[in-house]
Amino acid sequence: MIDHIILGCKEIDEGIQFIYQKTSVMPQKGGRHPQWGTQNALLSLGQNSYLEVMAPIPGQATNYPFDSLPDFSTPKWLTWAARTEDILAVKTTLDAMNMKHSDIIPGARIKPDGQTLRWKLLFPENNYSGVFPFFIEWESKSLHPALTSPIGLSLMTWHLGHPEFSKINACFIQLKVGLHCTESVQPKLQGLFQVGQNNAVWI
Question: pTM here?
Answer without folding.
Answer: 0.94
